[in-house]
Specification:
This protein is mainly beta. It is about 10% helix and about 35% strand.
C-alpha cells in the first residue's frame, strides 16, 4: 500500500544539515512524495529560467500547502547545459554556499550526469581543493532522433544500485570509463539500476500519445514522462508533467532521493533538438 509522504517539520524548523540529508537520501519505501516545480522566466531570466521545487501537502478537505525544497538555474557562459541546484531559492549562483548538486550535459544535450557538491576529478585546477571528489548520483540518456521522426522521447535513467539494507552506496568515479554513462556504454551494468520512461500509447480520439497520470498531469507536453523498471511497469518510480504553462507536477518514490528526481526533471526542460 502506497501512502503520501509528509514532512514532519516545517522548513523553518529544519536545520540546513537536516535539509541536505533529506534531499540526498532515498525516500522511505512505500511512500510517494508529491511535488510541484514552478518555472520563472521573467525579464532577463527568459533564456535562463529559475526552477523551484516544492513538496505538496494536500489535506483531506483538498487544501494544498507547499514547502520550498530546492532551486536550480542553468549556468550562463557554459559550453554545455550546466545546472546548479541549491537549497536557497534566493541564491542560485555558482559561488553559492548552499549548492547540493549539479547537472551537466554532453555537447549535443542528449546525455546528462547528476552530481553532488564536490571536487571535479576531471579538472586539473581542482586538484588543490579540500573538497572530496563529487558523488555521481545518476545519469539520463535520451535516444537521439537524427531522422527527425515526430514521436515521444525515449529516455534511459541510470542510478546506483541499492544495498540490501536499502541504502545508496557512495559512487565517486574518477575516470570517464568509471562513470555511469561510461559503464553503461561499455555494457557493464553491474551495480547499476537501469530505468526507462514508460512508452505512451497512441490515442485516436486526441491524436496524441498519452499516459495515465491519475489526474496529476493535465496538459499534453513532450516533456511529460513516467519512469519505470522493465520488470515492473506498474511501479511508477517517478512521473513528471505539465499542469499549467509554467507549473509542473513531479512525484517520486523509493529508491530516488529528492535531488535525483529534481535533476532528472531538469533534463526534460532542456532543449534537445536531436531527441524531438
Amino acid at each position: 500500500m502506497i501512502s503520501v509522504f509528509r514532512l514532519q517539520k516545517t522548513r523553518e524548523q529544519m536545520s540546513e544539515k537536516e535539509v541536505t540529508d533529506f534531499v540526498m537520501n532515498p525516500v522511505p519505501q512505500g511512500q510517494k512524495v508529491l511535488c510541484k516545480i514552478i518555472r520563472s522566466k521573467d525579464g532577463f531570466g527568459k533564456f535562463y529560467p529559475q526552477y523551484e521545487l516544492y513538496i505538496e501537502d494536500i489535506s483531506e478537505n483538498g487544501e494544498e500547502t507547499r514547502t520550498f525544497l530546492l532551486a536550480a538555474r542553468k549556468r550562463k557562459k557554459s559550453k554545455s547545459s550546466h545546472y546548479i541546484i541549491t537549497t536557497d531559492k534566493l541564491d542560485v549562483a555558482v559561488s553559492s554556499k548552499n549548492i547540493v548538486g549539479k547537472v551537466r550535459s554532453n555537447f549535443l544535450g542528449t546525455a546528462f550526469a547528476i552530481y553532488s557538491k564536490g571536487r571535479n576529478p576531471f579538472k586539473r585546477e581542482s586538484e588543490s581543493s579540500n573538497l572530496p571528489v563529487r558523488e555521481e548520483l545518476g545519469a539520463v540518456v535520451y535516444d537521439p532522433n537524427i531522422l527527425g521522426f515526430k514521436g515521444p522521447r525515449k529516455m534511459t535513467v541510470l542510478l546506483i544500485g541499492m544495498t540490501r539494507n536499502g541504502e545508496r552506496p557512495e559512487f565517486r568515479p574518477e575516470t570517464d570509463a568509471q562513470t555511469l554513462i561510461g559503464k553503461f556504454k561499455n555494457g557493464d551494468h553491474r551495480d547499476i539500476l537501469v530505468l526507462h520512461n514508460k512508452s505512451p500509447q497512441w490515442n485516436e480520439e486526441t491524436q496524441s500519445y498519452v499516459l495515465n497520470f491519475n489526474g496529476r498531469v493535465t496538459l499534453a507536453s513532450v516533456k511529460n514522462f513516467q519512469i519505470v523498471h522493465d520488470n515492473d511497469l506498474d511501479y511508477i518510480i517517478m512521473q513528471f508533467g505539465r499542469v499549467e504553462e509554467d507549473t509542473f507536477t513531479m512525484d517520486f518514490m523509493y529508491p530516488m532521493c529528492p535531488l535525483q528526481a529534481f535533476a532528472i526533471a531538469l533534463t526534460s526542460f532542456d532543449a534537445k533538438l536531436a531527441c524531438e
